[in-house]
Recover the amino acids of this structure.
């Protein structure tokens, strides 16, 4: 796990092309394919983590991740560097996940659809995954996205505002309400904020 | 539905701006396995139209962009002229998905596996999915494949049509699509792109549907299937 709280497999693995995000993004925008591949390799896990928790379904999350990576590959030429690459990347990932949710809402999929037991491993017991997915599904998607960006991706509030394209106050509101809804949905098994306050 | 109005009374929760470590632990996601990550990246990298060259708007390439649009229109018109209609099928199909008069699964396709130095693949055991029709997304493609496989199982017969055009890609063998074996073959139009669909397990044990360009047999996308 990284500072961002999502997997970073770049550590311990020689990148195809070394470099910081900005220079890699600039190179990729200019048509440097290895630079693009390095960026996608570097951030695939983070994109997947965002999609996995916003979509709250393993297979749909992989679809959203694929769509996000394709969107990044196709849109990197329009990335102008005025914002951080990660802000742009999280925006693309979040939009891909929300798009996947909308697509799913238009097709009949029973919530008890079989879990993807063979997909990304190591997430713990199936029951635990089911609990988290079901709990997340009870959180309105706009609140869910804000909580995921804050507590999973560790973005600060201004970054989340930039990713979601909403005012800072709305971000704060969504995170507060989303956390409360998620804790309730998890069955009151934990109430971290209340405990921190001594409540 | 909860309000999204930041001015609502939030009982002081808005002061809680720190990352919540317990929720962070609950939401943590394991890294992708190497095969899945590589597949996702490879699919994204394959022929991204905008990434393989500098952005046209920043290089003053408006003429290039216009020529690109014109080329796309010409290609579209060419594809349109190749539309054929089966006598027994009220729906038109494109040449890319046109059925052959003799599927002959044991006949090697003209896409010359020998040229590629690969042995011809004999798709005798593959289920013919036929033409899966137009699908808007990989999710829809997955649903269409599942429905067609289920129908094929129920009827214990292959669904005709479509797979004949896939012969060229099938003949290249499962390896070319990253599969261990090809268990089902079909065609579809994904978005606006005619594709060949090959289904089978990967060396890692995943059950995948792989879409390929009907002409070059280049892998376009991969879709994870259940089971």
């Amino acid at each position: 796990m990284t500072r961002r709280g999502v997997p970073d497999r770049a550590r311990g693995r020689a990148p195809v092309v070394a470099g910081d995000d900005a220079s890699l993004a600039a190179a990729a925008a200019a048509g440097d394919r290895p630079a693009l591949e390095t960026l996608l390799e570097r951030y695939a896990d983070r994109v997947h983590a965002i999609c996995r928790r916003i979509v709250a379904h393993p297979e749909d999350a992989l679809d959203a991740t694929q769509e996000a990576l394709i969107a990044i590959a196709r849109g990197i030429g329009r990335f102008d560097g005025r914002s951080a690459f990660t802000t742009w990347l999280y925006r693309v990932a979040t939009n891909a996940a929300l798009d996947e949710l909308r697509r799913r809402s238009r097709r009949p999929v029973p919530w008890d659809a079989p879990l993807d037991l063979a997909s990304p491993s190591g997430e713990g017991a199936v029951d635990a995954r089911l609990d988290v997915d079901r709990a997340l599904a009870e959180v309105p998607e706009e609140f869910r996205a804000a909580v995921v960006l804050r507590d999973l991706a560790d973005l600060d509030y201004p970054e989340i505002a930039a990713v979601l394209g909403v005012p800072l106050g709305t971000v704060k509101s969504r995170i507060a309400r989303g956390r409360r809804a998620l804790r309730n949905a998890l069955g009151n098994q934990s109430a971290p904020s209340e405990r921190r306050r001594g409540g | 539905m909860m309000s999204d109005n930041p001015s609502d009374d939030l009982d002081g929760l808005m002061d809680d701006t720190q990352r919540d470590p317990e929720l962070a632990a609950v939401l943590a996601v394991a890294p992708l396995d190497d095969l899945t990550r590589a597949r996702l990246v490879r699919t994204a990298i394959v022929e991204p139209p905008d990434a393989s060259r500098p952005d046209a708007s920043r290089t003053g390439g408006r003429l290039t962009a216009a020529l690109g649009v014109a080329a796309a229109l010409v290609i579209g018109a060419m594809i349109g002229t190749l539309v054929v209609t089966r006598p027994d099928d009220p729906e038109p199909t494109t040449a890319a998905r046109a059925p052959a008069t003799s599927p002959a699964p044991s006949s090697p396709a003209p896409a010359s596996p020998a040229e590629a130095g690969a042995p011809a693949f004999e798709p005798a055991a593959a289920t013919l999915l036929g033409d899966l029709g137009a699908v808007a997304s990989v999710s829809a493609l997955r649903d269409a494949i599942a429905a067609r496989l289920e129908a094929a199982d129920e009827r214990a017969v292959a669904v005709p049509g479509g797979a004949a055009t896939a012969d060229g890609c099938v003949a290249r063998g499962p390896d070319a699509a990253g599969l261990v074996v090809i268990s089902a073959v079909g065609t579809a139009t994904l978005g606006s792109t005619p594709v060949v669909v090959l289904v089978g397990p990967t060396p890692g044990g995943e059950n995948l549907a792989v879409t390929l360009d009907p002409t070059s047999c280049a892998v376009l996308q991969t879709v994870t299937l259940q089971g």
Observations:
- Chain B has two domains: 55-85, 91-225.
- DSSP finds five helices and seven strands in chain B.
